């Protein structure tokens, strides 16, 4: 993704050098460059947020597995107690 943005930024900068004959075109190119920079920042923030969420999911999965194993052990103990108890 960053490579694509770098290539796009290079193309935009090259286009600004070619189109220097009009100040309106330069202003438009500067606005587009600013928008690309803003989108790059947003993509970086989203990637960071995705990494945090993936970590939280992995932690929740580990906690769920541990709780499941503990429940299985508890059920086994209850089954052993019930089978050994006779009146």
From TrEMBL:
This is Major outer membrane lipoprotein Lpp. The keyword DNA damage does not apply. It comes from the Bacteria. Sequence repeats lie at residues 33-43. A lipid is attached at residue 20 (S-diacylglycerol cysteine). One of its GO terms (molecular function) is lipid binding. A lipid is attached at residue 20 (N-palmitoyl cysteine). PANTHER family: MAJOR OUTER MEMBRANE LIPOPROTEIN LPP, MAJOR OUTER MEMBRANE PROLIPOPROTEIN LPP. Its main location: membrane. It is a lipid-anchor; Peptidoglycan-anchor. One of its GO terms (biological process) is lipid modification. Homotrimer. Residues 35-87 form the Lipoprotein leucine-zipper domain. Keywords: Cell outer membrane, Cell wall, Lipoprotein, Membrane, Palmitate, Peptidoglycan-anchor, Repeat, Secreted, Signal. It is found in: Cell outer membrane; Secreted, Cell wall. The gene is lpp. Belongs to the Lpp family.
């Amino acid at each position: 993704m960053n490579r694509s943005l770098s290539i796009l930024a290079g193309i935009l900068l090259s286009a600004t050098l070619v189109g220097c004959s009009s100040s309106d075109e330069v202003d438009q190119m500067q606005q587009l460059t600013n928008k690309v920079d803003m989108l790059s920042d947003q993509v970086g923030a989203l990637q960071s947020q995705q990494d945090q969420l993936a970590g939280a999911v992995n932690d929740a999965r580990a906690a769920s597995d541990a709780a499941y194993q503990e429940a299985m052990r508890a059920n086994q103990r209850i089954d052993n107690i019930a089978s050994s108890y006779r009146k």
